[in-house]
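ok so heres the complex, three chains, lmk if somethin looks off
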Amino acid sequence: MILNLLLGVGIALFGFVLQTSLAGVNRKIIGRLQKRHGPKWYQEFIDIFKLLSKRSVTHGWIFDFGVIMALGGIIGTAMFMPLTTSFLAFETFDNFFIFVYLIAVGMLGMAMSASGSGNPWASIGVMRALTTMLAYEVPFLVVILTIIKLADSSSLTQIALYQQMAGNNWFIIALPLGGIVAVLALMGMLGKKPFETYIAPAEIASGPMVEYGGKQLGMLFIMHEITVFIEVSLFVHLFLGGASNIFIFLIKYAVVYTFVNLISNVNGRFKIDQVVLFFYKWPLLMAVVQAIIAIYFGWVI
Amino acid sequence: MKSTKFTPASKLSKAEIDRKWWEVGDFFRRNSLWMLMYCTGCCAIELPPAMTSAYDMERLGMGPMATPRQADILLVSGYLSLKTLRRLIYTYEQMSEPRYVVALGSCPINGGIYHDSHAVINKLDQYIPVDVYVAGCMPNTESVMNGFVDLMDQIKRKTAVGWKKYHENNAWYKENQKTSLGEVVVHDEFHE
Amino acid sequence: MANIELLILFLAGSALISYVLTRFNANIGSFFTIFVTMFVFVSLAGFGFAMNLDTTVNYLPGFTFSQSYLGFYFVIIITFVYLMVSFFHPYFINKFKYRSSYNFLFLLSLAGIIGAFYTNNFLQLFFFFELVIWTTMFLIPQGKSREAAVSYFGFSLAGSVALLLGIFMIFSQTGTFDINAGLAGLSGTTSVIVFILFLIAAFAKLGAFPLHIWLPIAHGNAPHPFSPVLSGALVKLGAFIAIFALIKIAPNTQTIGVLDLPLGHYMVALLGGLSIIFGTLMAIKEDDAKKLLAYSSMSHGGYILVAFSLMNGLAFAGGLYHILAHALASAGAFMAIAAVARVTGTTKMKEMGGMIHKMPITYLAYLIAIISMAGIPPMGGFISKWIIFQAVIDKGLIFVGIAVFFGSIGSFLYVFRPLAALFLGQELTEYKHVKEAPILMLIPTFIIMGLNIYTGVFPAKILDFINKIIVEVGYVPISVSTYAITGANDSILNPGLISLVFGIGVLIAFIIFILLKKSRKVELMDTYTAANFVHDEHLLHYTTDFYAPLERLYEKQSNWMTLFYQALAQKVKDLGSFCKYLFMSNHIGRTLLWIMLIIIALLWGEAL
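and the predicted structre for the whole thing:
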């Protein structure tokens, strides 16, 4: 048991290192896209350690407690994440819903801490973040419902194994409409450009982050990197057939994250009600159509 | 000849350990400088080329930030009036330490072309400590970038200590602020 | 050995005594109420778990009692909520107009509850139901508004009439008022009609979609200590009736092939889904904290209906667990709001802010309650929602699935609003003098906090008991071991492990936090305002129209149901005034006309 827990902490740490490096590499790629040099690939590490080294301000106990709860919740979630179909900390307990709901503890902690700072912009940012969540989660979960029904399991490794079995396609191919919905939902989850309404630095002064500086902001950056690791890995396991070894996982992970980042950089930003209307129009419709086709008619490529 | 006996390593004092950590921290701080831009004058036009593909500030690890809490550098460009100085001081005091101030153009140095106006503050460093001046009216983008590199160099040589001076000579700064502005914290101008 | 009959008589007697005592001194009467409810709870808990209660009847002629695991599950939850709330009475009783009758009716309604769940006769069931409804109807107007009671009574009456009609239908077909024999003997079309009638009663009591209007009005305006009872306990009577209809009658309507579910049950699941969506959307919009929680009760009632209509052991277990989890969560949240309302005198969120700095324990109670309500681990609500999700996915119900997911994500939005607006944010000047709730009010708060966590971390014992109920109604029990719950689709949940891992994560974060440089403490007003000087807390406190961009999207549709019921009420009023015009008139001619018509009818009646 202790060994498993240590392994889990190791996976969380691995996720942090992986995602932070990849985020740095992606900043460089975006720089090249815009005909710039871009920062060093380890710039994100420097940023985080710099923040941890600064002397920050605090607005009371809930401000600090929320940050601890946020980072703790996310580390806890990452500990359940399988890297490959056989390499995970807690075998058989990698249930899909754990990820969706345990991640919410982290989000709640952050929202609490942000509102506890007493800054109205922070509350507006939290409001927008929650509204965006309401928008993208429902179509995404309908697609997941289809997948769980088809794979007859809600464990991530089992779903990945089902796709690796001979005769089965990856779900992004088998359920093309659902795949599109999932990519859109992933962009919402990661807060990428058309849906980054809740950060909006020029409009609401970076939303929930407005009052953070120093170690609290550094911890939230760590939390953000691990969250991205969880969400992208979820996509890899659910739609891209998981990974049978760690290299395949790394390749798939890097491809998905870079792809989403590239799309994001040629987009503007939606208003918050546009985000809701967008997700409840086409993605939800596509998700439902896909679910009906796949579950009731059994037409799966 | 070395003694074969076990000699305990000389214990570092608390102050020395702190200094070592501070040096490690300095490496991160000089390679990741986030700015809060306080632009009231024409020098602000030099910042877009500094950020975008011409000079690409991001390769030095620098970038703009939204709020004073997150920022390391307070970039002051353009002239300061009595009204804006109040806000500048308020913003400076909200920043997390260590914090640095970069003054752009001649207005913060000597008042620039408005030096004889009744409402313009001529010398910024009477009110808050300034680490780097970039002179010129207006300075071109190379000198702006050069100023940032100077700041990084100063952090490396541990001479960027404006924020410490603000603590040490706080009474002096406060008095200057009071003489020019009356009260620094003024009443709510919009909602009363 | 406790006897049910004696318990009911004891409660009725104590009700009278408490009336006299409260007359004499309000505090003595309230403490007496606490001891009476505690005695009843302890005797039920002590003998009920093993079905050791004495059911013999000596003093009440014509009454019969029997005990079942199902009835006990409901009765212990409800009595527990009553007990917890009774601790609040000494601090609230002086605010009521009719103090003595408050305690009297409170105990009498508890007697009704015990009777309703332990009876085995339909007529007695109806009698006890009415006892509960009538007593609570007089309790509600002691709060803010009298109209609340009218609305509550109107919808309850509709439910009662449907229930009574259903009971008579059963009697006419099977010839018995015995509950088990009557439900088992139903068949054919009668069973469908009884199914529908019972469901109307259940929907009315549970506040589910078409019959939900009373819920926010009654919960929002009820006395502060009585709202937890209404939401945590009394709406669960509806769930009890729903079990009769959906599981015990379960008529053979046409089965939908792909879903493997009868049409009737699917319709109920869809209506449950509508309840979830409607409750969520209205809760997001609401500004009154208690009404917001009332709408959340409506949405949770929808979850219970969905779970019961899926017709298998797993879903049934999820529904039953949800009843417990929601009772605890909703009681905790309402009690926290009551504690706040006691010191501020309002439940409007836009008038409050920053209560956390003065009432940190109440804040924690509310936080834990809403974590459970939103279905986030490690609290009880997560276990039940997880089971219900598994059951819904296993059946492949897409549209119900959309509702269930929407409600679950939407609950993050509405539960966060009181947290942000009422407890967090700027500390408003007018509430800087308030104090934390007194120790007697904190006792139940701590107990409920503990139970919310316990139900989320160690559900095995409770699920074992639920398995007994599942066997009793004839489904396949779910497999539960000490550490893991197995759902459909090969899924296994280990709540203890989740909590452990969460704890380790928080520990790591805490170590990181404590190792780094200490922060400088600043005032709440010292926030980033784009360098403007703002000196008024109200201007920096974001509470009004919290979800404005989202609300704008459905503000036109949001009052459809209210308009419908207003129109209905208008029609009934018109009908009434038409009758009044015909019958109640001073005009002699109209009276003569009626007399003549009646005489003619009487004369012709013979011939016809």
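quick notes: The two ends of chain A are 41 Å apart (CA to CA). thats all i got rn
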